[in-house]
Specification:
Elements: E1 18-23, H1 31-47, E2 49-54, H2 56-63, H3 70-83, E3 92-95, H4 101-112, H5 115-119, H6 122-130, H7 139-142, H8 144-154, E4 159-161, H9 167-184, E5 192-194, H10 224-232, H11 253-261, H12 265-276, H13 282-308, H14 313-339
Parallel strand pairs: 1-2, 2-3, 4-5
Helix pairs in contact: 3-13, 3-14, 4-8, 8-9, 10-13, 11-13
The protein binds tryptophan.
Length: 347
């Protein structure tokens, strides 16, 4: 139950493809992450050789003015991952800033990357336009997708699970890899994107996409009471004003989450039926949903509490991950420097 961080790398995994994904440590993980990413990461740790890292430098690119909680968020993210079933004995869990060569490789990749390629990255343009509360005019933020390319390439990542928003970053990575290889020799691996099958979109308590920045998120690590309170305040079918109005569960965020967490499909079908026929009210449905949701998360929350009781555990996992990723990085960087004639060949 309590995962051993010192499990050795099994040899058998050497034949598996290598998957890589990173998360910026900007806060606790939500139910949206659970269904959107974590289930997929849990699956991939068995079918791939998995590298999961905390992208603390990426968090810095936008949050450089306030770094006060970056360590706390890093620690919480690692604990959330492990409580969600990411096994540090299977996946290599590490922190980006423990691999300083990522910065070196970012610099090398910057040589082969035209500025125009970075200027036209959609997420860059959008965020510069839409986010006004943070100063994103810094070079670091401009380099965000370039550093992401370095993250992937430095472990010879072959597969990267991507949602819609990250697809252009992966495309850019591939272009940079091709340009590097055309210049210095076929050396870097061109990563492929894998579209997660299980990427359910989870609505927040207000019906919009669940997101920390909308204030509509249910956090995996919050208490059952907090979750229940949020569920009781959820919006339902807005056209259903009275209990006697028939409702439409297809557009009800409560029902959408219920479908994901209910013990069985009959429960969901029953609430669907009695909502449409106005035989049951939203308050009763919320009570039932809160009970089912907290039951669904109870194993996660128990594990999370257990991990919490071991201060320093997340840092042990990260230290172990850093040691495991080191030989991979040293090897790749040796080849890169040699290909660029920066170091004389050894021996
Ligand atoms: N850009 C990703 C995000 O916003 C985080 C990230 C950084 C990442 N480096 C990566 C994802 C490399 C995949 C591969 O969540």
């Amino acid at each position: 139950m309590f995962p051993d961080v010192h499990l050795t790398h099994e040899r058998s995994r050497m034949s598996k493809k290598r998957v890589l994904t990173g998360y910026r440590p900007t806060g606790r993980l939500t139910l949206g992450h659970w269904f959107g990413n974590l289930m997929n990461m849990r699956q991939m740790q068995d079918t791939y050789e998995a590298y999961y890292f905390v992208a603390d430098w990426h968090a810095l690119t936008s949050d450089w003015q306030d770094t006060s909680r970056i360590r706390q968020f890093t620690e919480e993210m690692v604990l959330d991952w492990i409580a969600a079933g990411i096994d540090p004995g299977k996946a290599t869990i590490y922190r980006q800033s423990d691999v300083p060569e990522v910065a070196e490789l970012t610099l090398y990749l910057s040589m082969v990357t035209p500025m125009s390629w970075l200027e036209r990255v959609p997420s860059y343009k959008e965020q510069r336009e839409q986010i006004s509360e943070k100063d994103l005019g810094n070079v670091g933020f401009f380099l965000y997708p370039l550093m992401q390319a370095a993250d992937i390439v430095i472990v010879r990542g072959e597969a990267v699970p991507v949602g819609e928003d990250q697809a252009p970053h992966l495309e850019l990575t591939r272009e940079i890899v091709r340009r590097f290889n055309a210049t210095y020799g076929e050396l870097l691996v061109e990563p492929a994107s894998v579209i997660p099958e299980s990427g359910a979109r989870v609505p927040g308590t207000d019906g919009r996409k669940m997101s920390k920045s909308y204030g509509n998120a249910i956090y995996l690590s919050e208490t059952d009471e907090e979750t229940t309170q949020k569920v009781m305040g959820m919006i339902t079918d807005p056209a259903r004003r009275l209990k006697t109005d028939p409702g439409n569960p297809d557009i009800c965020p409560l029902q959408q989450i219920h479908k994901l967490v209910a013990r069985d499909s009959e429960t969901v079908a029953e609430w669907d039926r009695c909502c449409r026929s106005a035989q049951c009210g939203c308050v009763a449905h919320k009570r039932q949903m809160a009970a089912d949701l907290t039951a669904y998360l109870s194993e996660f929350r128990a594990r999370r509490a257990e991990l919490n009781a071991h201060p320093g555990y997340a840092w042990e996992v990260l230290a172990d991950g850093a040691a495991r990723v080191r030989p991979v990085v040293v090897d790749l960087m040796g080849e890169v420097r040699e290909a660029m004639r920066l170091k004389a060949p050894v021996g």
